User: Fold GntR family transcriptional regulator from Mycolicibacterium thermoresistibile.
Amino acid sequence: MESNGDASERAYQAVLQMILDGEAPAGSWLREQTLAEQIGVSRTPVRQALNRLAAEGAIELVPNRGAQVVSFSDEDVEALFDLRARFEPLAVRLAVPQLTEERIAELADLATRMEALLDRRPLDTHQMSRLNNAFHGIFLAEAGNRHLTAAMQAVVRPALVTLTFQKYSERALRLSMHHHAELVEAARARDPEWAEAVMRAHILAARHAGE
Assistant:
């Protein structure tokens, strides 16, 4: 029997896929009962999935109306990348001196797993996004500034990250993985300035990856 947590995760992945595939385009409304029937779960896991997607900025919960898929305009994307370029490098600089050997090993493992995904086609953008979010999340979690961490978690939106990966060229993907490997090396060297510079270059490159 499927646990509620498993059902919630399955509902989350199913709805996110609908959004990313354009089956639920920007501006469309998502109904709990309809989704529950489509996915094959009760309404409770669907409600949990929608709350999670709303927290990530993929949908907006409108009182008395339901859930509406958010539209990311070019201006929205530019603004989010600008915020990341300003503050995520700072988070990395603060985090590097605090990283334990275990956390650095986690970073290295995540970087290796992302690199391995590049040789698989079609590219699993969902898995790439999950690993990428975990990689960046380690730096945010270890920055030692809860206000900065909370602000950055609101900016680094999984749905937008996945959409960005879908637009990456092969060259852009390889460059992104190179940046991850260099961030691991900077962390091992305990060099916060190096890590800060790499993260800034990483985000600026991601901004133009789909061009």
Summary: The CA atoms of residues 16 and 26 lie 12 Å apart. The first helix runs from residue 4 to 21.
